[in-house]
What does this fold into?
Amino acid sequence: MSPESEDSGRLQIAVGVIPDVRRRQVLIARRPDRARHGGMWEFPGGKQEPGETIEVALRRELLEELDLRVLAARPLMRVAHEYTDLRVQLHVWVVDEWLGEPRGMQGQQFEWVPVSALHERKFPEANLRIISALQLPELYLITPDLSSYGPEFFEMTRTLLTAGVKLLQFRSYRLAATERPEVLRRLSALCRESGARLVVNGDPAEARACGADGVHLGAARLMGARDRPLLRPLLVGASCHGAEELRQAERIDADFAVLGPVARTRTHPWSTPLGWPGFQKLALSTRQLPIYALGGLGPQDLDAARQAGGRGVAMISAIWSAPDPAAAFRAGLGQEAVS
It folds into this structure.
C-alpha cells in the first residue's frame, strides 16, 4: 500500500506551499464564509479524487483554484489530524516552479504573507503543523563539542548569528556540568538579541532553566521518553539513526528530527553512512516530521537534502572549521527555498 493511500479512513488532501523566495513569503487563501472553517486562512489545495496520485491532485487543484500551472514540486510532509467529525491527511508539497500569476478562480481572497507572520492568521488546526515546519530554517547549526567555551567561541557565535543563523543547537559532552549554566546563559542572550532560537542537547529541565527555546533529545534520551517533554511553543528536536527512532520521535510529537549520518564523518568513522538513498527511504516513510540531514554535510548539500525529502541540513564542522564560517553559512542562505 502506498503512503498516499495508507489510511483509507481519512480524507486525503493535497496541499501546496507556494513560496516567494525573494520576499520570504508564502501564498495563502481565505476559506469562504459558508464553508467548513469559514473565514479562516489555509494553504491552497483540495481533495484527492479517485484514481489520482497526490501530485496530480495538487496540480489540478492549483490550476482550478489559482490558475497556476505547476512545473516542479516536491513533498514536504504529511499531517494526520482528527476533527470532531472528520479525519484528514494533508499531503504537503512545496511548489518550486509554476507558470502564471495567482488569481482567485472561485472568487476566493488570497495574500502573500511572510512565513514569520503566519501565526498571526487564524488557520484550521490541521494547518498548524505546516506553519511550524515552515518556520524551521533549512540550515540548522550545531555547536562544536569543546571542553571549554571562551571569548573566541562567543565572538564567532555572534558573527554567525549576524550572518543569519536562526536555529542553533548547543551540544557538548565534554564541558563540565558546573560550567554549562553560564555557557547556556550567554548563548541564550546572544540568540535573543539576534532573533534566533536556541535548543539544548540535554535535559529538558536544563533547557527551561536557561531560557532556551527548546530541547534536542539525543537518541538514548529520545527512546526513554514517554511523551513530549516540553509544551509548545518550546521546540523538541530528536536525533535519529533509523526507523525505530523516527517512529519514537513521531510518537512523542517532536517538532523535527535529525537523521544521519548521511556521509562518513571524521568524528564518527565507525558509523556506516546512510547515503542519500538510505536517507530518502527513511525520510519518505515518516512524512509527519520535518527531518534534517546530518553527517559530513554542508550548505552545498541543501538541494540534495530537499530532493531526498529532508527539511534541510544540520551542520557542525562544515561551518565552524571553514576558513570563514560566516561566509560559509551565508553561501547556504542563498540557496534557501522556504523559511
Remarks:
- The chain has two domains: 3-129, 139-333.
- The two ends are 33 Å apart (CA to CA).
- Residues 1-6 have pLDDT under 50 and may be disordered.
